[in-house]
Amino acid sequence: MTMTAFRRVASEPYYLIHFFAFFSYIIVRCSAAELPSPLLSHLLRREIQLLLAFCVLTAVKFVREETWEAFVGYTLFYAKISLACIALLMDYHLALWYAIGFLVMYIITQQPAFKEQGTVNYLTPLQLETLLTEGGGSKFWMVEFRSLSTSSCVRSSSFFPELSITFSNNDLSFGTVDIGLFPNAAEKFGISHTTSQQLPTYVMFNDGVEVSRLTPWDPESNFFNVPLSKKLVCQHFQLDKLLIDYIHGK
User: CA 220, CA 112: separation in Å to the nearest integer?
Assistant: First the structure.
C-alpha cells in the first residue's frame, strides 16, 4: 500500500471505525485465555479455519476485482462475517453485540468513493440539458448517472475518471450527474433511482441525441447485476474506435 493510500485509509471515518471494531477482538480474545483448555483449543482451531477461508476469499477478490474500492468493500464484508462467526462460538451475546455494532456502522458510515476526478465534468441536470441542446464544444458526450449512496457506484467509481484520462479529446467529453443529489434527473433520462440495479448507468450522446446506453440491469435478460468493468464500458461504447477516428481526423 502506498503512503497516499495509507493516509487516505487513516483519514476516513469509515475505515477507522472498522479498524477499531476489528481491534476490539484482540481485547475479547485476551479475556478468553481463562477458558478451559479443551474449549480454548476448539476456539483456536475454528479461528485458524476462518482465517484460512477469509484469506482464500480475499485472494479471489484481489484477482477478480478491478478497483481498490471493490476489493476493500468485499474484504471488510468477509472480515465482519468471520468476526461474527467466531464471536458466536465464544458467546451468542457477544455475537449479538457485534451484529448491532456492524448495523450501526452501516447506518452512520459509508465507504468513500474514488477521489480523483480525471477530466470528468461534474454536471447538474440543467447543465447537461444545456450542453445537449445548445452544444458543449464536443460532438460526443459520455455521461455517467450515479448515486454514491449505492455500493455498486462506490465500487466502480474509479472507472469513469480513468477512462476519461485515456479517451477524452476535443470530440469526446465525459460528464457525471449524481442522481442522489438530483433525483428528478433520473426520470428525465429514463433511470430508476429507487433501485441500485440500474446504477451506475452510462449513456453516450452524439450531437445531443442518445445513441447508446449501458446499465448493470438488462430487463430482457434473466441475469441481473452484470459485472461492470472498464473493459466492458470501453467495448460497449467503442471508445478505442472513437479515439482512433479522432486521431485520424475522421
Answer: 33
Residue 34: pLDDT above 80? no
- Span between the terminal Cα atoms of the chain, in Å: 43
Q: How far apart are CA 236 and CA 147, in angstroms?
A: 22
Q: Grid cell 478505442 — which residue?
A: 240
Is a pLDDT exceeding 90 seen at residue 89?
no
In the prediction, which pLDDT does 10 show?
A: 64
C-alpha grid cell, residue 192: 430508476
Can you tell me the mean pLDDT for 21-48? 84
Instruction: Give the span between the Cα atoms of 130 and 135, in whole angstroms.
Output: 7
What is the C-alpha to C-alpha distance for residues 208 and 12, in angstroms, rounded to an integer? Answer: 39
Contacts of 154 (CB under 8 A, 6+ apart): 69, 73, 110, 111, 112, 113, 148
Q: What gap in Å lies between CA 89 and CA 69, rounded to an integer?
A: 31
pTM over 0.90: no
ω before 200 within 30° of 0 (cis)?
yes
